[in-house]
């Protein structure tokens, strides 16, 4: 909400629209996804039905109810609310690439943490994030990353004694 | 009288140095995140929730509550000085606050906002002292059917939190239930694990929250131009005696409206701020001044905002029903600390509740003492570039998700939900109903199954018991009231800003 209001006002004030508009029947696709999840819930309910304590008492009850309502609401979205267009604004290509790199960095951080340990991966991920999001040069990004890593080390490992993976190098 | 003596003992506990420190830190952090781009109260509470677990329940919740009402105040600063309301609830503040700032009276407007927030915050907490135990006194009469009825009542909140489409809100709520069912069911069967061992423990609530609120928020923030606060010619932040006199009645009226409406489960601050603004305009002798810099136009909505925020703790503590996204995260926090919000909370954890309530008084005083002289400092801090803030938020989110169960699996879930949250937001699928139902799902299911066991499968149990029936009737009435209020607020928002905005916040 906060971002939405802020972005609306910023756009309104500056008159800048460096975004492209894309119309897509997203609600209909959402309705189909909802039906799939509903069907999964119903199938789970059917699978669990033999383990019931009573017809409405058991682990099958809520999956069944949720599944049926999801299918009905999904159908409503697909067929009844016809062609409602959601205007989606994505940022320009450069920003999209930056966002993609940010996510790749976060997933690399997650993947490498058990192997390289918390300190090294946090330092590397921070350098990358400062460079990608802040567009700082390598030196500045490295300085920011070292400060952040040291502060977090002091807070979480030194003070709060939180157990993080130490990796091959046991750091 | 019992409430007063419990409150006094709560003060005894809240006034320990560590608890005062937590209230101060919470108020400061809250004000800061309210003003900073890229971090709202919801995501700040989500990130800090696992970290505060180290502090213990009382200190943790005191700090998180401080962040909550601190952020409410912080949001008004950007509304007044920049005409950029952090939340929809700050839109009425901007209507008169920004014209005042343009006239060089931004300082007094900020001062009045702070005083109104303080007065209404205290009024709200006084109401909390008397109302919450009244509601909670029915605790012993609550059985599974009554709890189930309460959960149904909580679902009416979805109408308020659904944003642009009720159907989408309902679907997201059901998706929340779906996610909550992953893992072991109430009678011990594995569900939705598809043979995967890691899914047997289900999804961690905090990971989902951090993903949907903190990580996706950073992604959204990256694509927006950020503004910093200019402190040129705002005048003194201390309002004149005439300003205080002029706005004192508006503060009281706004506080009253905010509090009464805030008692309704799910009534958001956006609804009450617009209501109080309109009420003040109607009661004013000079309604033409509204929109052109009327100080009462700042005082009334700010008072309503804070009174509603304080009143929101009543349905939260007494029923376990959150009325806003940050309170939904606080509800998750209470559960993490092993506390069960609802009618038995006052019975079982009275000392905790009263300490938190007492700390709210302290937090409100701290906000007033700290905020007026520190407005300049806050404004400087907002000039920290987003390129520095965003990586810090992401790394903290990562650590926050990891720290709950020391599990990298939870971090992976947070990252996946971060991406999902970004796209859900883009396509206007509201995530708050998802979180609400994800949190309340297990309670709804266990109370339903227990009720059905009690009644041998008869639904009549829900209408045969007077409290259960009363709550269900109230839920239906509230549903209608919510529809009316939401429609009215949407119309007013459109009128004020010229476009539809999501008023769920």
At a glance:
Chain A has helices spanning 2-14, 26-48, 61-80, 93-116, 118-134, 138-159; strands at 20-24, 86-90. Chain A is mainly alpha-helical and 171 residues long. Chain B starts with a helix and ends in an 8-residue tail after the last helix.
Would you write up a description of this structure?
The complex is a heterodimer of chains A (171) and B (505). With 171 residues, chain A is mainly alpha-helical. Chain A contains 6 helices and 2 strands; from the N terminus they run αβααβααα. Chain A has a two-stranded antiparallel sheet with strand order 1-2. The two termini of chain A are 41 Å apart. Residues 15-24 of chain A have low confidence and may be disordered. By secondary structure, chain B is mostly helical. Chain B is 73% helix and 1% strand. Chain B contains 22 helices and 2 strands. In chain B, strand 1 and strand 2 form a beta hairpin. In chain B, helix 2 packs across helix 17 and helix 4 runs parallel beside helix 17. Classes of the chains: A mainly alpha (171), B mainly alpha (505). At the A-B interface, helix 1, helix 2, helix 3, strand 2 and helix 4 of A face helix 9, helix 10, helix 18, helix 19 and helix 20 of B.
**How many H/I helices of chain B?**
22
The shape of chain B, in one word, is globular
Uncertain runs of chain A with pLDDT below 50, 5 residues or more? 15-24
Following the backbone from N to C, one meets helices and strands of chain A in this order, namely HEHHEHHH
Derived from helix and strand composition plus strand pairing, the structural class of chain A reads mainly alpha
């Amino acid at each position: 909400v906060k971002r939405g209001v802020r972005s609306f006002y910023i756009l309104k004030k500056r008159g800048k629209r460096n975004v492209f508009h894309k119309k897509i029947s997203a609600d209909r696709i959402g309705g189909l996804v909802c039906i799939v999840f509903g069907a999964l819930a119903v199938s789970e309910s059917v699978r669990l039905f033999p383990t019931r304590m009573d017809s409405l008492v058991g682990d099958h009850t809520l999956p069944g109810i949720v599944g049926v309502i999801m299918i009905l609401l999904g159908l409503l979205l697909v067929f009844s609310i016809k062609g409602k267009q959601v205007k989606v604004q994505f940022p320009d290509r450069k920003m999209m690439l930056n966002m993609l790199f940010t996510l790749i960095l976060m997933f690399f951080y997650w993947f490498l943490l058990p192997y390289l340990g918390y300190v090294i991966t946090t330092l590397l991920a921070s350098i990358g994030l400062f460079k990608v999001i802040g567009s700082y040069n390598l030196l500045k990004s490295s300085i920011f990353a070292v400060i952040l890593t040291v502060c977090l080390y002091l807070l979480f490992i030194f003070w709060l004694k939180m157990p993080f993976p130490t990796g091959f190098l046991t750091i | 009288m019992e409430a007063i003596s419990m409150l006094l003992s709560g003060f005894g506990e809240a006034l320990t140095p560590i608890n005062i420190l937590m209230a101060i830190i919470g108020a400061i952090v809250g004000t800061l995140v309210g003003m900073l781009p890229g971090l709202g109260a919801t995501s700040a509470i989500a990130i800090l929730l696992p970290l505060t677990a180290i502090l213990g329940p009382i200190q943790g919740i005191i700090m998180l509550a401080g962040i909550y009402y601190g952020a409410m105040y912080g949001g008004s600063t950007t509304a007044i000085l920049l005409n950029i309301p952090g939340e929809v609830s700050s839109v009425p503040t901007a209507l008169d606050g920004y014209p005042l700032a343009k006239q060089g009276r931004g300082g007094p407007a900020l001062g009045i906002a702070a005083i109104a927030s303080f007065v209404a915050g205290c009024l709200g907490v006084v109401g909390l002292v008397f109302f919450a135990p009244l509601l909670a006194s029915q605790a012993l009469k609550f059985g599974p059917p009554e709890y189930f009825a309460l959960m149904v009542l909580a679902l009416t909140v979805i109408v308020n939190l659904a944003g642009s489409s009720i159907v989408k809100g309902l679907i997201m709520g059901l998706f929340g239930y779906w996610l909550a069912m992953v893992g072991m069911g109430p009678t011990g069967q594995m569900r939705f694990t598809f043979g995967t061992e890691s899914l047997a423990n289900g999804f961690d609530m905090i990971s989902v929250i951090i993903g949907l609120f903190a990580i996706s928020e950073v992604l959204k923030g990256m694509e927006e131009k950020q503004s910093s606060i200019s402190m040129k010619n705002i005048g003194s932040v201390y309002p004149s005696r005439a300003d205080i006199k002029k706005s004192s009645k508006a503060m009281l009226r706004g506080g009253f409206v905010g509090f009464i409406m805030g008692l309704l489960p799910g009534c958001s601050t956006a609804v009450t701020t617009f209501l109080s603004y309109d009420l003040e305009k109607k009661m004013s002798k000079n309604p033409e001044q509204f929109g052109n810099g009327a100080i009462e136009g700042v005082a009334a909505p700010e008072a309503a905002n804070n009174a509603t925020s304080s009143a929101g703790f009543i349905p939260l503590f007494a029923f376990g029903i959150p009325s806003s996204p940050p309170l939904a995260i606080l509800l998750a926090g209470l559960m993490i600390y092993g506390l069960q919000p609802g009618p038995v909370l006052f019975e079982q954890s009275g000392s905790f509740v009263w300490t938190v309530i007492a700390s709210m008084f302290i937090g409100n005083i701290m906000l007033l003492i700290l905020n007026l002289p520190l407005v300049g400092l806050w404004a400087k801090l907002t000039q920290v570039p987003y390129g520095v803030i965003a990586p810090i938020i992401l790394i903290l989110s990562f650590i926050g998700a990891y720290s709950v169960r020391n599990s990298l699996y939870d971090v992976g879930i947070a990252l996946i939900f971060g991406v999902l949250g970004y796209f859900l937001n883009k396509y206007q699928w509201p995530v708050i109903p998802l979180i609400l139902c994800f949190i309340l799902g297990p309670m709804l299911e266990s109370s339903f199954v227990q009720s059905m066991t009690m009644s041998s499968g008869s639904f009549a149990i829900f209408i045969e018991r007077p409290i259960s029936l009363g709550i269900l009737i109230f839920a239906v009435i509230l549903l209608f009231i919510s529809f009316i209020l939401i429609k009215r607020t949407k119309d007013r928002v459109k009128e004020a800003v010229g476009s539809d905005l999501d008023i769920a916040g």
